[in-house]
């Protein structure tokens, strides 16, 4: 989604019209001072020079291609792609799985080599695609394309090697514009070319063109032996995508539009979440299927898709309200919790993540108080605490840390993260931005709601925080890449940042990602900015649906996505990678199930209700995690989140347990847990 995105413009202009008085006019006025980070890598090697003047992606589906040596694979469904040493390898991976990990091992089927001996670089990118240039080849890596497509820009020979796999045969069809390569590993690949190409077996594991070629070559694995599969690939081989853009189309809708070349219809693949939100009138080829770690991918014909999520309510307060009989208990807890707000604790907390959580915890107390008749006048104390806590970060006057601007990758970093890859959990290398900033934005939204004047005074830095992770503007995008964390094809976010990983990007906490977009939507409410609310709401809905599809391992429901052993052992995924699923966490082993559940629940806010809407599944999760709570080292804070889930179907038991807790998570409180449980809708029957 670079500046060269003509298709998005009308939508963005529409937004900008409602919003123009809030646009910072130039980068010189970015509200945080610039720093020269020593923690970030140098982006210049793997991007075309023309891309370097605009913000670069830091959490994208092709990040491995532009970090360090750029030679780790990325998952461009349905293929793993790796580029190194002037060549590009494609693998149609076979999933391996046991009870603790599901993974796509990279084992190249075909390696396409350039004679140029040039390093690859990104020549353009869009929401759904990236162009990778290697010498005379331009690979159009488009997510969900069953074909790997590349243009040979200058006449040259093409050499395809098959690594450890022998070539059984190379057969030629249709005037040598179609070939089938049969490998000794049993894989059969079809090669289509826009002109005759004379592919010949040169050595046991090498295929070469006998003469020069220029034009377009498309390569696809035959995922099964059905004649129909090959016929479908034949039929749609003439039309290829070169880029793809996503836009938000209002009212929880997303649209994809691919720019295509050639002739005929465009054949793409849809993953299980796509299929839930695609309209029924789209042509779906049910029998045309590829395997993936995200579930079966099926063929869809069309160069634009509309995806429609069910609307979710974005509210400050609980969605269903609380019965008055519960007010006194909540009021008592609020008085106590507000009394313990501790400015000294806050100002001695340097880490942006923990600081943000302390703020958001306090902000919740004010909103809960509003809901129980403005309980006992506690709100002014919360407002005072929030101002004291938030202002130093927005004014740049917090001695222990602060927000700064990194021009190299165009985004916010923390002062402590600007000299360290590990401080603030890697915030300085663009890890976890939406998590940390989500807590700040939540707190700012609440404070701006409670004190309009304060909100107006701090509007510019407040918006800068949102724009860092959810930049949806057409103009002045030089501050930060649009939608830093959100992946429009997977329809959820990645945390990860600028570190190369063998399995691609990852995200652990879906609930903190949901909170980030929910917080942005609330900030839109606080400032009367409908565009901001619309964008935040749509991303909240998508992130929730993706969490339910891929993180929540729901045996009973729609989820037959993972293999049996993994599904039996896990009710939630720990770390979800682009190319792997793990039951461990970054900070805990797989056995610490209370952490694994908690990190998918926190922070408990009104929209949490929509994340855990399936009561049958919630019960399964609680039963699955309960034995872990018996461990002596199981933390009280984590237990609180499990009881919050139990409260969805058993208020009485859950309240009893919550009241016995000796401590709460640093972002949680007794008030918040009581508010949550007492606001659960009464069960029918
Ligand atoms: C690239 O070449 C170097 C040097 O020959 C080699 O060590 C490395 O393994 C190669 N990388 C890949 C991915 O083939
Ligand atoms: C699962 O596979 C991974 C990777 O192959 C291995 O490290 C791990 O020990 C296996 N776990 C179990 C429980 O078998
Ligand atoms: C290819 O380039 C690398 C480094 O740029 C160099 O070390 C190597 O000798 C070159 N190989 C050939 C065949 O030119
Ligand atoms: C599918 O239906 C929508 C309205 O529901 C319509 O806008 C769209 O044009 C239809 N698409 C096709 C391919 O018929
Ligand atoms: C406030 O926090 C500081 C630093 O964590 C701590 O030393 C102090 O005891 C706390 N004050 C109260 C009243 O709890």
TrEMBL record:
Q: Which organism is it from?
A: Cucurbita maxima (Pumpkin)
Gene designation: LOC111472032
Q: Does the keyword Ribonucleoprotein apply?
A: no
- Domain (Glycosyl hydrolase family 81 C-terminal) ranges: 326-676
Q: Which GO MF terms are attached to this record?
A: endo-1,3(4)-beta-glucanase activity; glucan endo-1,3-beta-D-glucosidase activity
Pfam families on file: Glyco_hydro81C, Glyco_hydro_81
Tell me which residues make up the Glycosyl hydrolase family 81 N-terminal domain.
52-315
The biological process GO terms on file are:
cell wall organization; polysaccharide catabolic process
In its UniProt entry, what is this protein called?
glucan endo-1,3-beta-D-glucosidase
Q: Which reaction does it catalyse?
A: Hydrolysis of (1->3)-beta-D-glucosidic linkages in (1->3)-beta-D-glucans
| EC number from the UniProt entry | 3.2.1.39
Family the entry assigns: Belongs to the glycosyl hydrolase 81 family.
Cited InterPro entries: Endo-beta-glucanase (IPR005200), GH81_C (IPR040720), GH81_N (IPR040451)
Q: Which UniProt keywords apply?
A: Carbohydrate metabolism, Cell wall biogenesis/degradation, Glycosidase, Hydrolase, Polysaccharide degradation, Signal
Q: What class of enzyme is it?
A: hydrolase
* Gene3D superfamilies named in the record: Golgi alpha-mannosidase II, domain 4
Keyword ATP-binding in annotation: no
Q: Which residues form the signal peptide?
A: 1-28
